[in-house]
Design a protein that fits this description.
By secondary structure, this protein is an alpha+beta fold. Helix content is 30%, strand content 30%. The protein contains three helices and four strands, in the order ββαααββ. A four-stranded antiparallel sheet has the order 1-2-3-4, with helices on one face. The longest helix is centred in the last third of the chain and has 15 residues. 20% of the residues are buried.
Amino acid sequence: MDKITISGLQVNSLIGVYDWERQAKTNLTVDAVLYHDLTEAALSDNVEDTLDYAQVAASIEKCAAESSFQLLEALAAQMISDLFAQFNLQRVAITISKPGILPNADNVAVHLERQR
């Protein structure tokens, strides 16, 4: 299946369970894998026949900025729901990383994958 990958998208979101996490937005990193039939674009070489990944990135950024979830799982699920609503995608995988949240770990990440 064809796919477009967006890696390392930096977003800010009010996210977390603890009071100190709710004081300010947190920097998160999002990786998205978008499963979409790219046959027509590959044959036509026309940008109108493919998925506009700038719009996809903007959707992810907007979702993060406007949300106030406690859990990364909930934010990832909302991102996927928004992407399905806005784009003709067959499957979406989202990984959200929250670096520096644990003192003895470089990163914590949640990965959700859904299909229509």
